[in-house]
């Protein structure tokens, strides 16, 4: 609808400002009006095709619309200045300038006012297009900031939850499980040492219940140590099979090089997924325009994950944050007996490296 409205307005401009007897000018003006639908896909070509209308006729609506669209889409300031100058010169030259002699120019035609008028008409769509472009980019960056802050808030909550669960798992393993083990040992000794049948049966029952309690405690400890990535275990947890979708939807150009078996323990798979997720989030936040490479491989009994990004191509906005992302990754890795190391690369990029034992979570 916008394209149709612009073409219609340009045709009205042609009808008002171009004489039907002037065939060459009418052809140039009609061409300028009809190429306006191409301005978003081929902005520079569309603008150049509208210039003859400003050069040979007084129909300038199409060149101004094409110049505005070019300014709102292109970041090259020198090109925009050159295009604005080209339009100003085309608009300033008198109509049918090739038929005029040097002594036929009126004094008013060469004064400051006509020049200023042409320059103003040329700079207005350029400045307006740049303003629209800046507003659009600012909206995108604000959306990125909101998304990053929400993601960081979730990671902070997950990190706190993981720490609390790890502390609870240690307490259960070091205190409760130890005391229940002593109860089982004492009940077994009583079962063997007593001669009273009723006492022996009671001791056997206590020992059996103690062993069952120990099994339940071990299961709960393993669940607590493996959890922390989500507030609840009711939803499916991510695994290595979900990495491809994570990389494809990360919003950055990333290459995944994976050579890991799908039989790794679920806690290890979740730790790998969360590490890659956090690393890609940091690339998007702190290295705009950078590309990333994700490498996953197994060497003996160790899983090695590296996420490397190139140097950013544009400056990053200073985003607010609590800096808990890498801390949470290190805590998760330590709970599984692994390590997380980070640091800059020689080419100005950044690298995150995760190492985990392949049997983590099976203890």
Q: SSE layout and pairings?
A:
Blueprint: H1 2-17, H2 23-34, H3 43-56, H4 61-73, H5 77-92, H6 112-193, H7 197-226, H8 243-248, E1 254-259, H9 266-286, E2 292-299, E3 302-309, H10 325-335, E4 339-344, E5 350-357
Helix pairs in contact: 1-2, 2-3, 3-4, 3-5, 4-5, 4-6, 5-6, 6-7, 6-10, 9-10
How much strand? 5-15%
Coarse morphology: rod-shaped
Helix content: 55-70%
Strand order of the largest sheet: 1-2-3-5-4
Radius of gyration: 36 Å
Query: Structural class, from secondary structure content?
Result: alpha+beta
Helical element count?
10
Q: Tell how many strands the DSSP assignment holds.
A: 5
Largest sheet: 5 strands, mixed
Q: CATH superfamily assignment of the largest domain?
A: Histidine kinase-like ATPase, C-terminal domain
CATH architecture of the largest domain: 2-Layer Sandwich
CATH class placement of the largest domain:
Alpha Beta
Low-confidence spans: 228-235
H/E topology pattern? HHHHHHHHEHEEHEE
Distance between the termini: 65 Å
């Amino acid at each position: 609808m916008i394209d149709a409205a612009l073409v219609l307005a340009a045709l009205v401009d042609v009808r008002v400002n171009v004489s039907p007897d002037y065939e060459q000018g009418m052809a140039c003006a009609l061409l300028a009006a009809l190429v306006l639908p191409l301005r978003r896909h081929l902005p520079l070509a569309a603008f150049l095709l509208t210039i003859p209308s400003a050069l040979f006729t007084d129909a300038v609506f199409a060149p101004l619309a094409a110049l505005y669209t070019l300014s709102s889409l292109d970041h090259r300031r020198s090109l925009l200045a050159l295009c604005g100058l080209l339009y100003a010169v085309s608009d300033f030259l008198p109509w049918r300038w090739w038929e005029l002699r040097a002594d036929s120019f009126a004094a008013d035609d060469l004064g400051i006012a006509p020049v200023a008028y042409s320059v103003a008409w040329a700079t207005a769509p350029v400045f307006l297009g740049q303003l629209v472009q800046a507003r659009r980019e600012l909206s995108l960056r604000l959306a990125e900031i909101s998304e990053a802050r929400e993601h960081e808030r979730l990671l902070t909550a997950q990190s706190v939850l993981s720490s609390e669960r790890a502390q609870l798992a240690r307490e259960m393993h070091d205190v409760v499980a130890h005391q229940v083990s002593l109860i089982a040992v004492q009940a077994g000794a009583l079962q063997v040492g007593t001669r009273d049948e009723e006492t022996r049966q009671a001791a056997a029952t206590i020992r059996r219940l103690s062993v069952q309690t120990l099994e339940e405690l071990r299961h709960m400890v393993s669940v607590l140590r493996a959890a922390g990535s989500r507030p609840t275990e009711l939803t499916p947890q991510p695994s290595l099979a979900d990495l491809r979708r994570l990389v494809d939807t990360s919003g950055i150009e990333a290459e995944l090089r994976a050579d890991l078996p799908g039989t790794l323990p679920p806690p290890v798979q979740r730790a790998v997924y969360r590490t890659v997720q956090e690393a890609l989030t940091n690339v998007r936040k702190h290295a705009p325009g950078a590309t990333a490479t994700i490498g996953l491989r197994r060497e003996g009994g160790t899983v090695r994950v590296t996420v490397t990004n190139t140097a950013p191509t544009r400056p990053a906005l200073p985003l607010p944050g609590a800096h808990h992302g890498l801390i949470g990754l290190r805590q998760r890795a330590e709970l599984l007996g692994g390590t997380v190391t980070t640091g800059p690369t020689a080419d100005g990029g950044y690298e995150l490296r995760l190492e985990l034992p392949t049997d983590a979570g099976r203890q």
